[in-house]
Amino acid sequence: MDIIEKALQMAAKAHSKQQRKGSDIPYIVHPVAVGMILMKAGYDESFIAAGILHDTVEDTEISLNDIHREFGLEIARIVDGCSEPDKSLSWEERKTHTIEYLKDAPMEIRAVACADKLHNVRSIKNDYEQVGEAIWSKFNAGKEKQEWYYTQIVESLQYQNSFPLVRELEEAVRRLFNR
């Protein structure tokens, strides 16, 4: 079976009962969109599969060992790098960790994380156009903290060297926060 098809099947089953935060949209839309962003940007199958699987370990019963067994070390390493290590930490501690980690993370992790954040920002912008400032109430951290986080993510991803997806993310963040 094709690796992307296999990733789609695993992610669809793992996220089958989940919805996007504050909506009735099936969660699987997000990982599929991340994979599509990576595909459109010209990344290979392993990046695309990792993008589709990027939230499975963090948000479902799928373990990193499951990913490693089914998809190999490279994809497991990317998924692990895109997962928050300790959900018991506060929002700010988790986000600060992500910002610092991505500065020096391997390129494949940075690319998948960037596609993830790009889809999140695009989704927030779309929702903002529908409901305005009320969009921020669905997040644990409001508009100011979201702006801080996404601005810092862009800087972190540009730390080593920039790449086309980072420039797309930077523009999306600028548009979302009217910067």
Automatic annotation (TrEMBL):
Transmembrane region(s): none
The record ties this protein, via SMART domains, to: HDc
Which residue intervals define the domain HD/PDEase in the entry? Answer: 23-130
Gene Ontology terms, MF aspect: guanosine-3',5'-bis(diphosphate) 3'-diphosphatase activity
Gene3D superfamilies the record matches: Hypothetical protein af1432
Q: What are the boundaries of the signal sequence? A: none
Keyword annotations: Hydrolase
Report the Pfam families cross-referenced here.
Answer: HD_4 (PF13328)
Q: Which InterPro entries match?
A: HD/PDEase_dom, MESH1
Per the record, the domain of life is Bacteria
What protein is this chain from? Phosphohydrolase
* Originating species: Neobacillus cucumis
